[in-house]
Design brief:
By secondary structure, the chain is an all-alpha fold. The protein is rod-shaped.
């Protein structure tokens, strides 16, 4: 491999990594799982059993 091939390979790997990392960041920043309080669970259970 000559220097030009190495540079092209390096750039290609950087692009792949950047795309992968953006996908991970987006998923992690997404809507966090809403934790229901005990009261919320009781209310939902009442409506479910109506």
């Amino acid at each position: 491999m000559n220097e030009k091939d190495v540079v092209n390979l390096y750039r290609s790997l950087m692009r792949c990594r950047d795309g992968f990392m953006k996908g991970r960041v987006r998923r992690d920043e997404g809507h966090p799982v809403k934790r229901m309080s005990e009261r919320d669970r009781e209310v939902m259970e009442c409506f479910r059993n109506r």
